[in-house]
Amino acid sequence: MVVVHASISLFSSTGIGDLGIEYGCGIPVTIFAELLDDRADLIEANYPNSIVIRGDLCQTKYEVIKSWEEKYPKKRPKLITLSPPCQGMSTNGAGKIAAEVRKGKRPKEDERNKLLLEGLEVVKVLQPEHFLIENVSNMKNTVVKWKRNKPKRLIDLIVPAIGKGYTLHSFVVDFAKYGVPHFRKRLITIGKRTQQRPSTMNEHKSPPYWFDAGGIEEYITVRQAIGNRWRTSQKDVLHQMPKMNPNHVEWARHIPKDSGETAHMNACTSCAHVDAFKIVTCTKCGQLLPRPQTLNPDGTRRAIRGYKTSYRRILPNQPANTITMSSGVPSSDVKLHFSQPRVLTLLEIMILSSIRNIENSRMQIKTDYPWNGKYSFESSMETKDYLLQKNIIRQALGESIPPLGMQRMIKSLLNDWP
After folding, report:
1. Which residue, 214, 222, 215, 174, is CA-closest to 320?
2. Domain 2-215+401-415 belongs to what topology?
């Protein structure tokens, strides 16, 4: 069967990772499948020549298959990518889900963990030349109930789901090693049609020797990526001062610059004494400390509940911590600018996510991404939305594959397989 130089994107989110395929690898992404309308709207606005199929893939997988077969009769895709929901698998998601289970608000097994298998039905029918699955590294330990409610590792169900004809490799990569300016470890499972009977799965602790794994020598630090953009601008809607609670700004202001420290450990502004974690009144001079705190009903003050990773500065001389959907929330893990009393702007998050170019002449670093400027959020944003702590840009970048990482992986998948 003839292979078509085109790709299908399942669980597409907003299609940001697909920039690395369409522009970085020159493979048109002709069909997208996405559950949420606001994400699908952005895909349609940025990929106007593609088919966007909306809804739960459990129901829409047949529409995906039909759309491909109508567009390319009796032909196979060059590539299918799958990035199913990770909230039931990731460490952060697992904690939240466990709390909801205890409250009786959620069934003990997160059905989203099985959505990958729905996407693999598309792989089985259309038989692409290559496919790539991306998810949090904890997917390799995720267990689901399968036939007769027997527990099975999700990764062990991939081979039976796709049928015969494929060789697969599964391993963890960190996109920071590709030059993406933030740490982002993900389990990557790649497959190639090799007429293998039956299909075989090879699990590795690190990428196989022939696959592009990047390296720590490619790290780009926060200072290199955004160190020249510390001053915000009212003229640039993407680089305005983020809207923050005045108390959060005050607590952040007292964290030593470039320290990577948390406001929970701020020193006394009167005597410079540093008290232990969760103390908000200086034990040496009695001064109220500039630390995250709240008022009790009796008028006394106590520390805000949280960990030392909250209200914490990003370290400037290494890649940033993983970009999440909560990038605008200072109480979330390590979200404060390395030297300024604020969270990162939308532009800074876009640069750290490799969707926009790095341009830092002082640090003598400049990138030239082929997708730079090819993606816009304007169609889904009102003026007031840009300053919100949680908006579509922060959510999209927090759940997307960095385009640079996608480009590097797909090029290796297509060209380096022995």
Report:
1. 222
2. Rossmann fold (3.40.50)
